[in-house]
Write a structure and sequence with these properties.
heterodimer; A: about 525 residues; mainly alpha; 21 helices; B: about 500 residues; two-stranded antiparallel sheet; 2 strands
């Protein structure tokens, strides 16, 4: 059955497309100065639409909201007909991540307003087209609940990001762009196999049940113990003792999905594409990459791995959480050793997302809540850090920390803003980062599946974060001004730079001081998932 | 007493109407020979125009014959079958020919090799392909295969001598000769295989082979042996035509040497014809070739092995190619591998139709995308055939943004990125493979497509990411070439974005 009628979700999803088409028909030369405004206006309107969604959203409802479902294609396979449907809707987790996406987007467009990259490389029109295409596909990933269409959006995000890095990036951009494309594609293509297998087994591609049709999640849970090697046990109890991890269909499917997501997150040891991509990408690209794109991975784990394969999740939880903790420590360690500011922030992402992974695989409500909020926090703080690095680079044209020093003296406002964002990233109480990390650590402490050591080493990461971020702050902003700019005007922040920072600072404090607003949004949705793992 | 039937009786009994798309095209071509012969030099441009008209006519006939959903019609006393499968692939072949003709006009004129025979041969070849997709008898397979191939041998050598009699390209001559010798060689395998199958089953008609092959496979007589050897030889013969490993050796040289429009044309029509015959013979005819109860068809394991080898070799060797035409040649081998995945999947009885539909959609996607890619390569190629290396495309994004965008979309489609036709094809093919339980094959398929991303993306890197000096002026950027690119682009995009369109078109296809 179809739930038709235009839903607010659809409108939000396709608003960037409207802007994209307007841009497509504008002349890139004669209307050059208008391009950015069209892109910016589109992203602001999309943000407003998503805020409307938030207002309409009822956090006490467990089901998806603002749902639209139309049958898109019917695939006849043997005797069965499998529907691929356009199925959008949001629960608390999706809602929060859509808001994050639409929030980051105007900021990253603002920060490209006066960028030097267009002087060298030009093609402003193409740039904004790719940004809007990226926004469309990222929102799509978060709101779509059909496996095939999800995969479509998931893969499409690669293309604009590839071009953003490849055309407007720094010196090593081609290597970074190709590595990014191939690495992430290699992971996600295995997910395609898993998706096709699950869809064929379940007879549908819709993840949730809607309008009388049973969704994949419900169907898949009924496969437990039906003697089809789903949980490793064949007909008549055959194969029972040979272990779950490598003999069950469920476990292999879990891994098929996980590899795709792990590369995107990235979970240690799949992170090697990230420093290259981050360092070479233009500022807006880094902000989006850190702000939203990486969250697609952790979102995917929560949405698909946990929901579809609970038994495999439990079996693999300690292993993946261990990798998460290794990521926390390793990311922090490598971060500390960097002299390149952008690389430092990039590795800090590995560390921060390790927390998110730890929170997810704590497999309880607290851990999941913390993890989801931490996704948002990381998007805001690390997005902010990349903005800072970008603005420094615009002025001094270097990314080496040793070239900087004493920026605070020249730019006191910029120094203060940077301090707030750095503190939020290292998890100072009162700012957003603390809330996320603290809840995650509480979750992992109370987890039925993880031992105390996970929490212990996780906590170590919080301290290490302070170490590398303060080191960066000290080198860049403290001391004597090493390289004065030739033009005093350069010390002033432009209006669009200020405008980009204001929302970030507001969010840092809002989430830090009143987290209940956001936790409320998540409560019911997270409890739904956590209920699968109650012991 | 033998009585010759009247024309009316003949038409009714042979059901000639069902073969109309193909027969009309042949008749039109024969007329065109005369028109081209008697038209004055200043009217030579009528030949391509009339060629397109002939294609349109055949297309209209195709709509007329296939639009009533009557299931299937048998024609020519059982030699020919007109069903949704035939109708769909006819359209694929016609569109491919149209794009190839659009590409040819300026190309031939520039190299001073414009002769009316070019179009006539192309039309004959597509007529051959159209008969081949409707072949219901091994004799029809063989005859239409020759009708498809012989014009292609000549077309491949079309660049060897200019109109004024001077030598132009030795490579083209080599290409035609190589193609001819290996083509003749493979035809011999095909005929020998058909003879053995006839010996074993007593029939050349595919439905009759189907009827008797099951019993023969079940027994352990000498007939079983002959049937198996016959099937193997048929696979070799058709394998040469579609260029799957290990029968692919001729492809890169032939593709590189032949005139680019011909390369584009044969990379599609020969494969479509070959795979259609493979599906008809093996899936319809020999699906009952099951050696022990409950197994998949006996040839499934062989087809799987061929698919794996083709995927790996095609994709890995393509990486090291500098010449774009050679790269596309190896990539076309790789794509034959993906279609072979569907053929292998069709060996399991319950996924036969799903796999066939997948193969059909894949062929359509491949047709649009590959022709488009070849059209762009042709546009940047210089008159002497140089300038088609991967570095030569650098900077196209600055001088011709639209053409570069089209090429990007073709490359993404060949890789199988969503929102392009190539993705839809891959989705259906892999889905069929999984249903047939061929997990290893599906995994190798997707992993090799990551490998393919490496060399396709390199083209995009050169167009967009290397700082072009804006100096690349496509040598052959004319109106007709642009039309060819636009049609290919539209097909790639429309069938990619509107995914159900493709699945609906083939939903009627049933091959059993």
């Amino acid at each position: 059955m179809d739930v038709t009628g235009l839903s607010l979700t659809t409108i939000t999803l396709f608003l960037p497309m409207v802007g994209l088409f307007i841009l497509l028909f504008m002349n890139g030369e004669t209307q050059k100065s208008n391009l950015k405004w069209v892109a910016f206006a589109t992203s602001v309107v999309t943000f407003i639409a998503s805020v409307l969604m938030w207002i309409n959203f009822d956090p006490s409802v467990a089901e998806l909201q603002m749902v639209q479902r139309n049958t898109w294609a019917e695939v006849t396979l043997g005797e069965s007909v499998i529907n691929v449907s356009y199925f959008v809707g949001v629960d608390g987790i999706s809602m929060l991540l859509v808001l994050l996406t639409t929030f980051i987007m105007p900021i990253s467009i603002l920060c490209s307003f006066g960028s030097h990259i267009f002087e060298e490389r030009g093609r402003e029109k193409l740039y904004y087209i790719f940004l809007l295409l990226l926004e469309w596909s990222m929102i799509g990933v978060f709101v779509v609940h059909d496996l095939i269409i999800f995969y479509v959006f998931w893969e499409v995000t690669l293309v604009p990001m590839y071009f953003l890095i490849g055309i407007w990036g720094s010196e090593e951009r081609i290597y970074a762009a190709v590595k990014f494309f191939l690495y992430t594609m290699a992971g996600s293509i295995l997910m395609l196999i898993a998706i096709l297998y699950v869809g064929n087994r379940a007879g549908t591609f819709s993840t949730y049940s809607a309008g009388g049709d049973i969704g994949v999640i419900e169907r898949v849970h009924s496969f437990e113990g039906d003697g089809t090697y789903w949980d490793g046990v064949g007909p008549e109890g055959e194969n029972e003792d040979s272990g779950f991890l490598f003999n069950s269909v469920e476990s292999w499917l879990f891994l098929g999905f996980l590899v795709a997501f792990a590369i995107k997150v990235p979970i240690f040891p799949f992170h090697s594409w990230l420093p290259d991509a981050h360092v070479q990408a233009p500022t807006a690209g880094s902000v989006i990459l850190a702000g939203v794109l990486l969250k697609m991975g952790t979102y995917g784990i929560v949405r698909f791995n946990l929901n579809l394969f609970p038994e495999a999740t439990v079996a693999w939880a300690p292993t993946i959480a261990f990798l998460g903790v290794v990521g926390i420590i390793y990311g922090a360690w490598v971060s500390y050793a960097q002299d390149n500011v952008k690389k430092l922030v990039a590795y800090s992402s590995v560390s921060h997302l390790g927390f998110v992974v730890l929170g997810i695989f704590a497999l309880n409500a607290q851990g999941l809540q913390g993890a989801t909020l931490q996704m948002v926090n990381h998007g805001i703080s690390t997005g902010g850090l990349f903005l800072i690095v970008g603005m420094l680079y615009e002025r001094w044209h270097t990314k080496e920390m040793s070239d900087y020093g004493g920026i605070w003296k020249a730019m006191p406002l910029f120094g203060a803003i940077s301090l707030v964002i750095s503190l939020s990233s290292m998890g100072l109480p009162g700012l957003n980062g603390f809330i996320g990390e603290f809840t995650i650590l509480l979750g992992s402490l109370g987890s039925n599946y993880l031992s105390f050591a996970f929490t212990l080493f996780g906590t170590l990461g919080v301290i290490l974060a302070a170490v590398y971020l303060l080191k960066m702050y000290q080198h860049v902003f403290m001391g004597e001004l090493k390289k004065p700019l030739a033009d005093e005007e350069g010390y002033k922040l432009t209006w669009y730079e200020k405008a980009a920072f204001i929302p970030i600072i507001i969010m840092c404090f809002w989430i830090g001081l009143q987290p209940i607003v956001f936790f409320n949004l998540l409560d019911v949705s997270v409890d739904n998932i956590a209920a699968l793992f109650l012991r | 007493m033998f009585e010759s039937p009247t024309i009316g009786q003949f038409l009714a009994e042979s059901n000639l109407v069902a073969t109309l798309p193909g027969t009309l095209l042949v008749a039109w071509t024969l007329l065109l020979v005369l028109v081209d012969l008697f038209a004055g030099v200043e009217r030579k441009h009528w030949t391509p125009i009339l060629t397109c008209a002939g294609l349109g006519l055949s297309f209209a006939a195709n709509i007329f014959v296939y639009s009533p959903a009557e299931g299937q019609q048998i024609a020519l006393y059982g030699m020919f079958i007109a069903d949704a499968f035939t109708g769909f692939l006819n359209v694929v072949i016609l569109v491919a020919t149209l794009i190839a003709v659009l590409m040819s006009w300026d190309y031939l004129n520039r190299a001073d090799i414009h002769r009316g025979e070019f179009y006539i041969l192309a039309l004959l070849s597509s007529a051959g392909a159209m008969f081949m997709v409707g072949a219901n008898d091994l004799i029809t397979v063989f005859v239409s295969l020759e009708l498809l191939s012989i014009p292609l041998y000549i077309l491949a050598a079309f660049r060897s001598i200019k109109n004024d009699g001077s030598d132009l390209s030795l490579k083209s001559e080599e290409s035609g000769m190589k193609y001819f010798i290996l083509g003749a060689f493979s035809s011999a395998f095909l005929v020998f295989g058909a003879a053995l199958v006839y010996g074993a089953t007593g029939a050349t008609s595919i439905p009759q082979i189907f009827a008797s092959a099951g019993a023969i496979a079940g027994s352990t007589s000498t007939a079983t042996f002959y049937l198996l050897v016959g099937a193997a030889l048929l696979l070799v013969g058709l394998g040469f035509k579609v260029a799957v490993v290990p029968f692919h050796m001729w492809t890169p040289d032939v593709y590189e040497g032949a005139p680019t429009p011909v390369t584009a044309f044969m990379s599609v029509t020969a494969k479509v014809g070959g795979f259609a015959a493979l599906l008809r013979v093996f899936v319809t005819g020999l699906s009952v070739l099951v050696l022990s109860e409950g197994d998949a068809a006996a040839w499934q394991a062989t087809a799987t092995l061929i698919a794996i080898l083709t995927l790996i070799l095609g994709n890995f060797v393509a990486i090291s190619q500098r010449n774009l035409k050679r790269m596309l040649a190896y990539s076309s081998i790789a794509h034959a591998g993906y279609i072979m995945v569907a053929v292998a999947a069709a060996g399991s009885a319950d996924v036969m139709d799903a796999a066939t539909q997948g193969a059909l959609v894949y062929m359509m996607a491949y047709m649009f995308t590959n022709l488009g890619a070849f059209a762009v390569v042709m546009a940047i190629e210089k008159e002497d055939g140089s300038g088609g290396n991967i570095e030569d495309i650098t900077g196209l994004a600055r001088s011709r943004p639209l053409m570069a965008m089209a090429m990007t979309i073709f490359m993404l489609s060949l890789t199988g990125v969503p929102l392009t036709a190539g993705f839809v094809g891959k989705l259906m093919v892999f889905s069929a493979a999984l249903q047939a339980g061929l997990f290893g094959l599906a995994v190798i398929g997707v992993l090799t497509s990551v490998v393919s991303a490496f060399y396709y993306i390199r083209v995009v890197v050169n167009m967009y990411l290397r700082d072009g000096r804006g100096s690349l002026e496509p040598a052959l950027d004319t109106q007709y070439v642009r039309w060819a690119i636009n049609i290919a682009l539209a097909g790639t995009m429309i069938f990619g974005i509107f995914y159900p369109l493709a699945t609906n078109l083939v939903s009627m296809v049933s091959i059993a």
